[in-house]
Design brief:
The chain is α+β, with helices and mostly antiparallel strands. The protein is 16% helix and 44% strand. It is built from four helices and 13 strands. The chain has a seven-stranded antiparallel sheet. A four-stranded antiparallel sheet has the order 1-11-12-13. A two-stranded antiparallel ribbon has the order 7-8. The longest helix is centred in the middle third of the chain and has 9 residues.
């Protein structure tokens, strides 16, 4: 083994599941952030954590409204999903800028994104400062999904997206990359 810099390590450890967190800003306008830093933290109750940089507009949104919907975009949504991870929502309405359609959530205020593989409605119960990010820990209060959309997106070293299905099928020929 050899010592690696962080970029080499991130590339070797790829792919990472690519998700979209839908938040609300202080005007109750939905915002979408693309992120790969998420994880389950508890089975009972079911909890998820996401890590969001302090300088991100979504951080400001999460500080205002302590709810989000974590969505797993499906194959075919890669271009719009990537835009959500590379453009700030401060001046851009990402639902208008993309082909994403908002769908009313069952128990939280931020909307779901139509056509995603899975969506977890989450309420933040705790947060931890971790250097330049905040780890938001949330209880999952409702779950939605599209069983026919089994292929969802993964990030390779935060430079391109690939599609991997829950049944193990892999597609590397997605056209969108950074």
């Amino acid at each position: 083994m050899k010592e690696l810099d962080r970029h080499e390590a991130f590339e070797l450890a790829s792919p990472y599941p690519y998700t979209l967190a839908v938040t609300l800003d202080k005007r109750d306008r939905p915002n979408i952030i693309g992120l790969s830093w998420w994880m389950f933290t508890s089975w009972s109750p079911l909890m998820i954590a996401i890590s969001v940089g302090h300088e991100r507009y979504s951080h400001e949104c999460l500080e205002h409204h302590k709810e989000f919907v974590l969505c797993f975009p499906s194959e075919g949504q890669e271009k719009d999903a990537w835009l959500c991870g590379t453009k700030s929502g401060k001046k851009t309405d990402k639902f208008q800028e993309t082909g994403f359609k908002p769908v009313h959530s069952k128990l939280v205020r931020p909307p779901l994104i139509d056509g995603v593989t899975v969506a977890y409605e989450c309420r933040i119960v705790n947060q931890v400062e971790t250097g330049d990010h905040t780890l938001y820990i949330a209880e999952v209060v409702a779950i939605h999904g599209n069983p026919e959309k089994i292929n969802h997106l993964y990030s390779i070293h935060y430079t391109k997206l690939v599609s991997i299905g829950s049944k193990g099928d892999i597609r590397f020929d997605l056209k969108y990359q950074h």
